[in-house]
Ankyrin and armadillo repeat-containing protein (Onychostoma macrolepis), 1407 residues
Amino acid sequence: MANPSDQSSESAVRAALTAQSLLQKYDRKDLQELLSLTSCNWLLSAEEHNLPVDAPPGIIRQMRNILAPNIIFLAPFDSNLPLDYRMVHQIVRELTVGIYVFNQLPVVSLVPNYDQSSTCQLPPAYYDTKVGQILINIDYTTKALWHGSYISREKRMRFSELWRSIMAVDSDGVPQTKKDVLTEFLNAGLTDISEDPCYQDIYKENVDVDPTYEPNSTEEENLFSQYSENILIKLSAYLTSVRQHQNLFVFEASHSLSDVVRLTEDNIDLATYQRLQKSCQTTNAEVSRDLVYLKLITFLVPLLISLRKKMLIPNFSQMLPPLSDDKLKTEREVPPHLLGPDFACKHFPQKQNQYFHLHGGIEFDVGTPPLDDITEEMKVAFRTLQTQAANYLYELLRQDSTYKTQFPIPLSEIEGKSYNVICIELESLYPQHNMIQWWGALNTSIKILKGKRLPLTDIELHEQFKKTFGCTKAIKCKTVAFGLKGAAERGMCAAFHSLSRRNPTSHLHVLDEQGLSLLHHAAANNQSHIILQLAAAGVNLNQIRSERFTNSGKSVVGGPFLEGAGLTPMHLAAQCGSLESLNCLLALRADCKLVDKRGWMAIHFAAFYGQVACIRALCRKDPALLEMKTTAEYGSSSLLLSATAGSVEALDVLLYTGANWREEDSKGNNTVHLAALYFHTDVLRHLIQLNLDGLPVWKILVEMIQSEDTRRLEMALRCLEALCVNIESSCEDIMKAGGIPVLVGLLCSDRLVVQCMATAVLCHMSENAKVSEDLVHHGAVPVLIKLLSSRQPELHSRCAVILADLAGHSEQHQNLIAQLGGVALVVKLLTSDLQDVLVNVVRCIRTLCVKSPCNQTAVAHAGGVPHLIEFLSVNSEVLQEEACLALAELARGHKENQELICEAGAVNALVQALRERKIPVKVKAATALESIASHNPAIQQCFLGQSAAKDLLQLLKVFQLDVREQGAMSLWALAGQTLKQQKFMAEQMGYPVILDLLLSSSDKMQYVGCRAAIALSRDSRTHQEGFCREYGVPPLVRLLRGSRTTLKTLISVIQALGCLCIGVALTTNKKSQKIIYREKAIPTLLELLKTHESLEVKVQVAKTLACVLLGNQKLQREFWEQEDFSYDIILELMGAENKSICLDAGHALSLFAYNNKAQQKAIRQTGRILMNTYETFLSSDNETERAKAAFQIVVLARVISGSDEVTLTARGVTVLVELLQSDQSTTVVITAQLLASLVHTRAGITNAIVTMGAVEHLSAHLDSEDEEVRTACASALGYLTSNRYAHRQLLVKCRKSPHIYDLLMENLARDARISQFFTAEFERQRGIGFPSLSLEINGGPPVPHRDNKGLAKRVNDRCSRSAIGDRETPAPLPHHVRQRARTANPRVRTGQTSCHSAPKQRLNENT
């Protein structure tokens, strides 16, 4: 058995080694600071001084006894950032050493050095620890976010060692280098922090800012630069709740950021501070993982202090192995930073190549909320949690952790929330017999070292001052007063201790040139250890600033000065957010109710300066402070002061703590009044969100704008304007509060500034429809129109905005503005020289013209067009865009204005705008082009002549969807209404562009793509096959199946599929039909036919189905065998009330029956097509309806009941031929196309057409001015030439008037067909000279005819005879196909053989 004395010796050695390892990492300076701080903590060094100390409230006072050998605490779990058990043990180990042995709490400050670097002022106990790394990383990143530049940790540590030599910094911290500073910093790793994906949009403009505040103005930048050295950002971590049950703890923690201005009011007045606060608004960005551990540290600090008081300490032997020292290095210094010209952050207006330091800090609030009991559900789970936590830790410690990198923490879900369950084993802190613990050995070493290392020698003092302040200031520090002040401000504990020991105590009471004592400076700079030393030396903790140094001439918030009062250290601690110093003063029983010259207590300073952590500490100390009022003239409470200063966080904490929001100051001002008077709109927004009972913000503001007090009126108007920008419901809230009649009344004010501010508010409100109605109701329109005649441009601009909004909400408002003469007055303002006025006036004109032909005309008559066109060429993108949009509305559907705009030179100006580099200008110009060219062929040609289509095609290559949409719509506006022009535009676009349009997600682009496909494929076999070859059918079928395809686009898709299958005169394209069938379009079409709600879709589907199957026997067989289709659906459509639907359904049936006896028989068997159906159309005044009905009764003559086939055919042909004499171009085109389709149907129909005089009428139209008429008639004549009678008649006409033949050939559609015999005969006769037919006409001798009628006659006879029968007549060959040379001379043998082969060849080609 081992000897107890040996065990004791062994433990003593181990403890000594542990103590040595903890101390050996410190150099001389750090060790001296460490040793001095062990005696200077107000909370942990009670045995070192004899001062009475009040422990902080919360867990430190209230912790109940722990009887278990461990503690278990539940930390909130974040799935994205899980805690690690080893890391938790490491943090507990480091905090235990710092709190139990070195008497130091974790805190960090980045303190500026004389050479612009920053010292990481960390308590020496946390040097080279994970706690120190976490604090420095969070603090550095927070400051980097505030400044906008960042250097990664590894590069930062390396650059800290090299930057002085790179910059050639002299002994006073001035760089002597000639190098480019920015380049050197960038090479060292400096980056714009907004380039980090985590902070990418952090500096984007905040939409909730005050619209009248301009942070980048020269005045604001100069103000900020003047005080930037004294502004810092602090992070305060605190517990929001803590619960205990036996040895189980549950906590919630949070943190807040606050800005600090470390200046007294002699250096900065309160109004200037309020302006600075706007510049100092921080972004609460998070260093996520470290912040999770920061919350844990926030709990562990007061917990360990409480355990120390209970004489319990964490057992290190029951913890996971510590991290290696090389992973725990902490930075002692941070190099300066620099902003590049392209960096996103603009908080600091730094000069080029001028680097700067970072400053700020992190501290923990050791005071906590009252200790509560855990919930009942947690009590039920307590035993299970206790057992599981202990067992898990036991198993974890047994495992080999050598190569393990992750140590997960067990989780438990209680009351729907997940927690990390952490167990810490404890041991007693009491000394044990024959046992020396590590902390005992460490305390012994510290006592020994204190005697050796403290106090500092003169040389050591100078070295410390020199390293901290530089050579020049270090020499000044040899003066006792200066040295003490410098040490107090920087928290140099060892130096201050040494100086105070060597000099009389009277030096500690000396006031500086500002009347401030060392205690004031220590409190302001949060140096609690200096305060403790001063308190131990007998310095009065309530020492006030000397009256001799008070500048009583300055205007301050709070009224006149009080006699016998002054600024105390606690006041400065509360003002500067020095939480540690404030807690120290409170614990040492300094008076927190003392007032300064204005009657302000510490709580008032904390509230006004927004120091949330200090407010919590003071209210915990004495809840009565919450309702304490200043004793000066205004009698303000802390809540009212927070509203005056504009601190939302302070206001929120005070309300949460129980402050009375209904209270008023001596002038009758409540929180709303004060926030408005000092223009703190963020406070007003917060109060609106809270919706506190008895504090109607909107009503109070409306009452303020009725005040006789000029300042109250103007500030309330400014606040209303700002709130309207940031709160969506503000318009209706102001209206409900009765604000509209008041604002309209202010428009009639005799004060120009009030009128301007009232219109500014209404500008933001008039967008709301209800507000617009209320404005009109209260007579705002005539007042606004009257203000248009004023001489104030600001009023012109805002009145134009309001009138535009009113006009945009209602046609009645448009008419009212026009009736009161507003249009002419608005147009008159187009002569202004100010861009803002012009932009808003042009917008107003645009809105007035929307769907209002009268206003469109009025603007044109008032002379607005030339000004708008002039604006297209100005050097202002915004004005260009607005002018384009205004011209678009001015021309939309108004042909006279279209012509006027075109005559005024808009075409050239818009085309130039289309060629601008700026995409927004191009888009707006395209919008104007679309409107001006719509349904106006002449203007379309003007734009096409300027190559506008090429510029619009460029828009289709832009990435933004809306840009491509507008480009597509404008392109199609230039396509016009004629097939030729549409086809031209579609060819300009090309297959790739059309396919891109079809594949787009935009409905507009899909529609244009479909229309282009229709234009290309209509009557063009080449484009039909080309489109299919480029895989154009699959996108169409995809749109056909798409659930998001709109009705208009769906109809166009269906039409496009039909157009791909048929050509001129219902000739078919079997390749296209096959591809469409193969893409499974038929089942989708049938589904649409059966289930779609739109009758128009159904009838278009029926027509397309017929086109896909037309003349294709193979597809027809497959269709009837595989698909479930019945004519009943189409027959039902023929009974529709809509005439167009009825006729289109009949046309679909006609296509199914066209040259198809089997389908004619199937339709006839239904017995449901009666002649009565067509009588209405045949007697209609609408010529198009008559033409379509006539065609259908001819095709369906065998199907229609109630009349015989011959009669129906004769009637139909008669109607069609008669309609050829119409003076309507559309009628002639449709009729000619239908006649061409009838040529190759049943026998005798062509003869009937010819007999009725169709050739004469069709020939007459070859001279038409309408190109479509000429093309349709030429194509019909071409098909008729296969008939011998038509052949003869047309040949006679061409011989009499050869130009008819030329017109026929010129206008014949590319895919139309004409008899080769006809063309050969005419060319032969033209070649040998035409006989003088005029002799017969004028009574001369007849021209002798040969007995042999000639080859052409015999061929025609044979062709006619072959056509007599029920089979389909083969169509003539296309006129552009060149056959073998053959002569028309009947005597030539080759011609005789060709007459037999020609019909077969034509039939084969047609097939």
